[in-house]
């Protein structure tokens, strides 16, 4: 593949056009469940779609599942804050690298086998993490979990698009719904299971993913051979385009702010798993609602890049306030939940911009972008653990400073990104669904 491939040419693992995907995946080709008025029904979907959607919910739960049990892990395993932060660093670093190879894998073995491989990896590594007795082992096992998550999430959207009735729009809504439910309920489930034992969320994830594995094995038809094999070099070639490169660098620093808040705040609050679960449930609800409902409205009214810049200002202020109020739990709780609203808008609009940033396949653009930004998410918890030993508020200041850098990069590159404000409905719809990767 060359970097001038038209954006509407899809690799396996990206969301193909509705007709192409349906030819490859749809177990009910030729039939489309309808509502009472004769139109397509969003809720009347093939069983294969619900199987993948359920698995996607569980996969997205993994984003915030660990948050409520961080203090318990630190206490029971006699781990330092720096060691506990590595649970996020290993997960995010491996996920970022794995994003480079998911297209290569799925274009060779097919979507169904890629989904099952990802689920199997998560089941094994989540269960082993729950059975581990050392922080080092859990950190390593979280890395394996990240590989499985990357393989599954990168392929799930294409599978839902291919099998869903009602066209691409219905598939996107279902995927977004799975994303929102997973992000919001992950911390809540983590808090509930973590109230019994910090091992509970790990074992719970393994059980749910095992159920999803069986469901997809039984209900999802074998995918047709991919039309084209993706090269491992494709994502690196995509970063030659200035617009995509600018967005990737912006996302790198933005993700540092994101994960400084997500990974470090539970250790500062030092509350029970149940309490932390409720707090981050509120955070997840705000993130999901603003990502799906608020971000498109703001974009239509004010333009994509301008809204992202405004959200960076808001997020930077929130992180600065958190740095100044580390001894006031009530203030930290309010800031965490409020930050979810800013994060949701940025996640959606940044991902939308990526989809129109370079004339390459969307799967390739997403892989290149995700590779860079996930390393921001990996670096922030690593630095936060060491900075916390100097000052409790310093990790939040680091997050705020990173968001300022993201603001400056995006502002100085705004002319390069002028075309990213245009509306392109098919690409924007898919971009909103691919927001997983931001929260994820």
Explain what this protein looks like in three dimensions.
The protein is mainly alpha-helical and 440 residues long. It has 17 helices and no strands. The chain has a single domain, classed as MFS general substrate transporter like domains (Growth Hormone, Chain: A), CATH 1.20.1250.20.
Order of helices and strands: HHHHHHHHHHHHHHHHH
Low-confidence stretches: 1-39, 431-440
End-to-end C-alpha gap: 28 Å
Going by CATH, the architecture would be Up-down Bundle
Portion in helices: over 70%
Radius of gyration, whole Å: 20 Å
Shape verdict = globular
The biggest sheet amounts to: none
Q: What is the CATH T-level topology? A: Growth Hormone, Chain: A
State the fourth-level CATH superfamily.
MFS general substrate transporter like domains
How much of the sequence lies in strands comes to under 5%
* CATH class label: Mainly Alpha
Structural class: mainly alpha
* Separate helix tally: 17
**Arithmetic mean of pLDDT:** 81
Membrane topology: Multi-pass membrane protein
Subcellular location: Cell membrane
Protein name: Major facilitator superfamily MFS_1
InterPro entries: MFS, MFS_dom, MFS_trans_sf, Tet-R_TetA/multi-R_MdtG-like, YfmO-like
